[in-house]
User: Fold this.
Amino acid sequence: KRERKRRGHGSGFCIDPSGVILTNAHVVRSADRVTVTFPGSQEAMLAEVLETDEVLDVAVLRVKNPAGKPLTHLKLGSA
Assistant:
């Protein structure tokens, strides 16, 4: 019996030009592979899950950026 591949979608924010992304933990939960696509691009980049916090529903990813170009990112503030 063939296993069905499941796909999920979510959103997140790139918070560092090296490709660190903040998203929800439920988006990457149980994922075998995570890919990220940036607005204006058709290219899907592989991402590594660095850390998750299920209680806060937060996950931190790092995009594997083969081109090595700085990525568009948001700056986090403090309040």
